[in-house]
Structure formats: structure tokens, C-alpha cells
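Appendix B. Extra example for self-study. Work through it before the problem class; the solution is given directly after the inputs so you can check yourself.
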Amino acid sequence: MRRPLVVAIFFLLLLGIWQIAAASGRWSPVLLPSPALVGEYLWGALRDGSLGEAVIVTLKRLLIGYAIGVIIGLPLGLLTSTSDYFEDTIGALALGLQTLPSVCWVPLALLWFGQTEAAMLFVVVMGTVWSVVIATDTGARTIPPIYARAGRTMGSEGFDKWTRVILPASLPFVVSGMKQGWAFAWRSLMAAEIFVTILTGFGLGHLLQYGRELSAMDQVIGIMIVIVVIGLIADKALFSPWERMLHRRWGTGLK
Amino acid sequence: MIAHDSEPRASPPAELVVEGVDKWFRTDRTITHAIEDMSFRVAGGEFICLVGPSGCGKSTLLDIIAGLKTPEKGRVLADGQLVQGPGRHRLVMFQESALFPWLNVFGNVMFGLRRKRELTNRERRTIADYHLELVGLEKYKKAYVHELSGGMKQRVALARSLAPDPRVLLMDEPLSALDAITREQLCYDIQDIWQRRRKTIVLVTHDVREAVCFADRVILLSPSPGRIREEFRIPLPRPRDINSPELAHIAQRITAALKGYLTETNEAAE
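Solution. C-alpha cells for the complete assembly:
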């Protein structure tokens, strides 16, 4: 019971500081709206449905693009781990492209796909896939070779070896890679939505950008808060259960 | 241990023949001669121990018998059949570190069983339960590997390698990482299980006492390249106590012989 209390006090304190700063009159309300104003915007946007719609559009792009990225990334990572030739070629490519900030894919995606959903998905996939490749590759190369040998003597070869021994053994790496991939995908999608208006759906990034164009600071801050909250929820819902499972089985991270 | 009325059928133990096995390892710059012209025969149901210091190729030999490595020369026959790859009739009880952390104890024991297509799921579970009971871990079915002590991990490894009913069991230093009391207990248990399930067992170790405790015959190896030097029959009655003076006495004799070969090898190297 004490931990939720501490959390509540902490965030109420933050809100309080914000309220005091806004009420002090030192900054124009155009630049620093009060929490109440932001709340009012969020409530309004929620009631007229624009916020809910934007959240759904954005999450749909993110989840589909992310799933495609993971589905491509996992086997590619396992492949690069099998031979030094793949490592030197595909692995090096993956490493290079992973260091490329994913927002850099936006111009290319626009020229290739135009202002379409495909461009959005492409950016998300590129944000995801390289992190997953590298993490899977590292995982599969780092696991003790004795696992594969023990598996082989018990009749686990070929496809079975990859899905039942190598992949589960590298899970601690794979999950952290997937988490990083998620973070990159989320960032790149926001960048793409801010840069590009497409008519098939207005996402959170678009709402943020309109807020800037209208100098509506309550909208800008409100949407930013929504983006942060979605990030937090995704982390808790998607990755925390995996991490808890890993800790329980591997006996790591125990207090 | 409890007598079990529904003991799963045990395959007859296989006779094992190692014939003129030679093994080299090549890296970019060096060639290491790991095993030189090794030949021996293990009767069905016999327990033999290969003893030697590090570098005598004993783990490599175990891999060759398991079919995980191919020798440069020579061959291994199990019941007259040429060993050409890993097979479930020859299973290795690796050291505890080979247990799978992503599976619980039951899942680890089931791993080899799941790969035996001829079994139904119900049969698999019955066999896994039987073997967990055999090693005294039926209460720890759901535990994960890191939650077990060293001795319990070795028991899981033993159950895992016994469950698919191999005809030859290969053991790699099963007692080496254990404290004295756990060691003594596991030593009894392995003897007991061997008598109940009658496997042909080849055990490699650097620990002479461990070897004398289990073996019908102890085969002494000397290093670089690994070679067979001498063979000792161990006439002690079973079950044997790893800490008994008679056992220590025999172990002492074998250790003395081992030291002799080591100085010989060192002098030759100088």
C-alpha cells in the first residue's frame, strides 16, 4: 500500500509545482498553460473523439509495423549468428542502420511510398528491425555452446534446435532487443507523423504538429502527456511480464 | 529408495567398442594431438571410468562416443553399429551447467522424451515422473534450475539423461563441483540407480576417488596426446563408500601410477 501512495504524492507534487509556476504570472499562459487548461483540452479532445481516434491510428501503425519488424528481425538475427560471413555482411549492415537515427528514413519513405500508410509502416519497421537483428544475433552467439550440444544428444536438430534451444536460450538478449526496437519504433513513428500529413488517418504526431501551428500550447503539452503515458503503459503491459518471467527462470535481478 | 511397481521398461545395455581412435584439433597456427590410438571395449552393463589430468582428451573422447565429434582415425561401435552422429541410445549427463534455465525441472526431464515420437504424451509424463522420483526430486517438479542446490542440479541432469532410456550413459565429472556430504550421497545414488536401471556407463573424471567409487574398471590416461596407460580392475563390493579406507587405498595406488606417467611426460617435454 505504501508504494502507490508514494507514487501518488510524487506526481501530485509535480502537478503542484507546475500549477504554482503557471499561476505566478512570470510566464505567458500562451507558453505555459496551467494544468487545468491542459486538462480541459484533453477532456474536450476525448469527448469529441479526436483524441481517441488519433491514439487508435497511431497505435495501429505502431503495432503492425513493430510486429512486421520483429517477424523479420528474429530469423535474420538467428541467420547472422550462424556464420561469420553473414555476420560480416548482414550483421554489419544491421549495425550501421541501427545507428542511423530512424527519423532519417522519413524522406526516403516519402519518396518511395508517397504520403501513405505504407510510408508510416516502413519507418516503424526500419526503426524496429535492426535492433532486433542485433540483439538476437548477440544472444545466439553468447549462449553457452553446451546447451546446443546437450540438445543435440537428446535429438534436437535443425529447426527444432533453433526454436527449442537457441531461441529460448537467447531470450534475455532478445527481449531487451525487442524493448529497444519498440522504443526506436515509437520515436520514429512520432517523427514521421510530425513531418508528414497523410489523409488516411491523423495520429498523435499530427495533433502535436497542429498544436504547434495553432500555437495551442495546451494541446501540445496535452498530447505530449498522452504520448508519455502510452509509452509507460506499453512498457508495463508488453515487456514487464516478459522480464519478470526471465528473472524468475534465470534467477537474475532478484532482490 | 522406494521400489516402484510401474517401472518403465529399460532397454538392454549396449556393448561399446572404441577402436584405434585418433583425434587432432587444428587452429590457424597449431595442431594439437588430443587423442592417440585409443582402443578399449566396454561390456554391456559395465561401468568404466576414464581417469586422467586435464589435457588427456577425456572430454573429447566422451564427445566422440556421444557422436558429437568425429575422430580422424578409428571408430566407435555401439552393439556393432558404427557411431556416426548423436543418438538417443548414447546420452551424455553433462555437468549441471547444461540444464536449460528456460524450462523448469519437469520440462528439462521432458526435453529428450518430447523428441521420442513413439511415445504418447501420457507415457512421457509417466516416465518423467518416474525418473524424478528415482533421483528423489518429485517435489521439485516446478522449480527452476537456479532455485536448486548443486547436488539437486546434478540429480536433474541425471534424470534428464536417464529418462529417454539410453543404452549407454556418458558422464562428465558428475561429482566434481559438489561439497563432501552431497558428493557422498550422490555417489550412493548413482550406484543404486545404475544397479536398478543397468546402463553401460562411461564416466570421465580427473578425480581418482570418484573413479574408484564407481568403476568395474578404471582406465588411466596420460596427457598430450591422450593415451591409455594402464587399466585397473576394482574388486570392491558394492555399494561402495567414497570415503572408505579400502577405497582410499586403491585410489592411492592409481594416483601414484598417474604421477609416474606425468613426470615421464614432463621429462620427455624438456
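Self-check: The two ends of chain A are 19 Å apart (CA to CA). If your reasoning did not lead you there, revisit section 3.
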